[in-house]
Amino acid sequence: MDEIRTIIYFSRHLQEIFWFLLRAEALFYMILQLENILTPEILQTINHQLEEAKFIDGKKTAGWHAVKVKNNEQLSNQFSEIRNLEKIIYQALNENIVFQMATIPKKIHSLRFSRYSQGMGYGSHVDDALMKEGRTDISFTIFLNSPQEYEGGELILEEVNEERSFKLSTGTIIFYPSYSLHRVETVTKGVRKVVVGWIESWIRDVQKREILFDLDTVRRSIFHKQGKTAEFDLLSKSYSNLLRFFADS
Ligand SMILES: O=C(O)CCC(=O)C(=O)O
Ligand SMILES: [Fe+2]
């Protein structure tokens, strides 16, 4: 993670508070990674089901410009188990406190189980702002297989001044603001398997989400260390009122 400027205090706090949960690393502009968002058992179930499944050309769900650079395969909507698989993912995301704190989801939507075989990739693009199922404030990728199983296939976030590259362990989620250009490098060996999706957040502005995430982290830390003190109550009041103030109507 050396190449990424990690905001140390985030991960320190989160690890302290959510010692029972997972290792979270927060980067600039709310690019976060959470390990083990899916347990090994769930991953096994998903991967087992995907082996049986029919995949179709990913171009079918790409916007008019992204279609020019999209070269992958996606689980067919006709696959009998697709709703079940989606339910498993939604449940894992809904049960994860850190994910909920950081994204404040109104709607998690448009899941796509994607597969990139040798020679496949997804060139530079920006995700559509509006999809059939909702607005896209946050994009996410959950890695379904190990980075050792393929070469290439990095998810690259293209910032104004630099690029960040992510090739993460099985069961890890990365989520990032949907406003950025990004791409998936061509897979040169093996197969890359992911599920991607989008979040319409109650808080569409990333800076506001970051303020709320900080406050929520601190109030939970105070609660964890000192219990429900007067300081906690006042901070909680500010958090709630700010959330109400910021939330989209
Ligand atoms: O596979 C990924 O990690 C991201 C794919 C992507 O950018 C998309 O489906 O819009
Ligand atoms: Fe994308």
TrEMBL record:
What is a biological process (GO) this protein takes part in? intracellular iron ion homeostasis
Superkingdom of this protein's organism: Bacteria
User: Per the annotation, how and in what number is the cofactor bound?
Assistant: Binds 1 Fe(2+) ion per subunit.
Give a yes or no for keyword Membrane in this entry.
no
Query: In this record, what's one Pfam family?
Result: PKHD_C
Instruction: Give me the residues that bind 2-oxoglutarate, please.
Output: R192
GO molecular function terms listed in the Swiss-Prot or TrEMBL record: 2-oxoglutarate-dependent dioxygenase activity; iron ion binding; L-ascorbic acid binding
Keywords of the record: Dioxygenase, Iron, Metal-binding, Oxidoreductase, Vitamin C
Where does the chain bind Fe cation? H125, D127, H182
Where do the Fe2OG dioxygenase domain residues begin and end? Answer: 107-201
Look up the record and name the cofactor or cofactors this protein needs: L-ascorbate; Fe(2+)
Tell me yes or no: is Iron among this UniProt entry's keywords. yes
State the name under which the record lists this protein. Answer: PKHD-type hydroxylase ybiX
Naturally occurring in which organism (per UniProt): Cyanobacterium aponinum (strain PCC 10605)
Q: What is the lineage of its organism?
A: Bacteria, Bacillati, Cyanobacteriota, Cyanophyceae, Oscillatoriophycideae
